[in-house]
């Protein structure tokens, strides 16, 4: 995709729009740090700078576009209030700044929205309406209320004011670290990358812009590349799980973005875990998409100076725990081993002696006597254990087999 001149009149958002938006919102948002990660740089072969947008008050960049929109409303529109359809970061960003400014806010969410997201949005004094079982149903109801009650609808991504506000992320990144030559940006509806690409194209030197989508939701990838990959599934990156990108944003991405890459669920999980372990920062699946791209496509970014946006940190704590445990299992530090034993006294004791000798910690033991194809005097034992690393675990398995036990790891999907 070719770059355009800065002043291209065909696009609805200009660099001046983004600069004005930054001046407008700067007093009321966090200027989040952009910091080099030396460990991730060594791991990926790129020089990696991270923009910590998960440190915004509502833990996501969405505040920027929401605030930029609210500050441009007329007095009449402010008095009547704003409405949005969202179950995520847009809802909280809009509700928070609307409450600060004294603007009534109504947020329509699907009925199956997790309770924590509902309560967080209500905490900002928004009127939350649960309607429909899907986002599309909630969206339709929000547009109905817009027309019935005179609210101003604030779109999560397909609005020039939103796009300009989101583009301020890139303004700060390039001011803080002008040596960045590649921006890696998550794509859902496309608001963030449209704004950031506008800033990149206005720079005095070439800056590549690479978008990232989850493999399960390649909607913008399909639009730009004329493909028909399926958009469905339970992705960790629900913040960018958008089935239909915006019309405005699709136009801007087609003209300004160099490439869109796809990342797997496994890469997303690994990236969430790495960011917590290495950078000591919590990100949601969408927030980890930039790092996932660096890990999944190392040849694409090796040798580049990359700016990646950690766009949000709102992840359910139980889900985060599952991601971390799964990553430990894949690395060999946690494992479940399945052994066949004879159902007689001392059988388990013999196994424990091998674990003790190899200094592997046992976490849980499960016996299965009934639902098995073994003879009646046999049983299956699953042992969850903790090793130092993959090599340590492999030594345990070898030792168990040398002791005469039939053993195999129970692998993750």
From TrEMBL:
SUPFAM superfamilies the record matches: Tryptophan synthase beta subunit-like PLP-dependent enzymes
Coiled coil: none
Keyword Lyase: yes
The protein's required cofactors: pyridoxal 5'-phosphate
EC number: 4.3.1.19
UniProt GO MF annotations: threonine deaminase activity
UniProt KW keywords: Lyase, Pyridoxal phosphate
InterPro entries: ACT_dom, ACT_ThrD-II-like, Ser/Thr_Dehydratase, Thr_deHydtase_catblc, TrpB-like_PALP, TrpB-like_PALP_sf
Catalytic activity from the UniProt record: L-serine = pyruvate + NH4(+)
Segments forming domain ACT: 336-413
Keyword Lyase: yes
Family: Belongs to the serine/threonine dehydratase family.
Name of the molecule in the record: Threonine ammonia-lyase
């Amino acid at each position: 995709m070719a770059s355009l001149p800065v002043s291209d009149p065909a696009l609805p958002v200009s660099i001046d729009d983004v600069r004005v938006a930054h001046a407008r919102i700067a007093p009321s948002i966090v200027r989040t740090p952009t910091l080099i990660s030396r460990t991730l740089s060594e791991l990926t072969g790129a020089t990696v700078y991270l923009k910590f947008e998960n440190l915004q008050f509502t833990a996501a960049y969405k505040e920027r576009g929401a605030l930029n929109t609210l500050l441009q409303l007329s007095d009449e529109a402010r008095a009547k209030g704003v409405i949005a359809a969202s179950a995520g970061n847009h809802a909280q960003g809009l509700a928070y700044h609307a409450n600060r400014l004294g603007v009534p806010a109504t947020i329509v969410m699907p009925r199956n929205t997790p309770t924590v997201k509902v309560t967080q949005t209500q905490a900002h004094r928004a009127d939350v309406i649960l309607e429909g079982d899907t986002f599309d149903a909630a969206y339709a109801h929000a547009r109905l209320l817009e027309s019935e009650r005179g609210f101003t609808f604030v779109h999560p991504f397909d609005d020039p004011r939103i796009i300009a506000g989101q583009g301020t992320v890139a303004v700060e990144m390039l001011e803080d670290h002008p040596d960045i030559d590649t921006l890696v940006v998550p794509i859902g509806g496309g608001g963030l990358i449209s704004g950031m690409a506008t800033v990149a194209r206005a720079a005095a030197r070439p800056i590549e812009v690479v978008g990232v989508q989850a493999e399960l939701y390649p909607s913008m990838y399909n639009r730009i590349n004329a493909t028909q990959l399926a958009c469905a599934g339970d992705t960790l990156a629900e913040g960018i799980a958008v089935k239909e990108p915006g019309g405005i944003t699709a136009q801007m991405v087609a003209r300004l973005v160099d490439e869109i890459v796809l990342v797997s669920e496994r890469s997303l999980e690994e990236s969430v875990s790495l960011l917590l372990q290495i950078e000591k920062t919590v990100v949601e699946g969408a927030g980890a998409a930039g790092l996932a791209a660096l890990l999944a496509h190392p040849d694409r970014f090796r040798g580049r100076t990359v700016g990646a946006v950690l766009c949000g940190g709102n992840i359910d704590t139980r889900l985060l725990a599952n991601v971390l445990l799964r990553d430990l299992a894949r690395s060999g530090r946690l494992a479940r081993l399945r052994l066949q034993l004879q159902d007689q006294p001392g059988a388990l004791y013999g196994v424990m002696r091998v674990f003790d000798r190899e200094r592997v910690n046992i976490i849980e033991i499960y016996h299965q006597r009934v639902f098995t194809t073994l003879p009646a005097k046999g049983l299956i034992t699953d042992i969850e254990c903790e090793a130092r690393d993959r090599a340590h675990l492999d030594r345990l398995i070898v030792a168990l087999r040398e002791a005469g036990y039939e053993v195999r790891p129970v692998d993750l999907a």
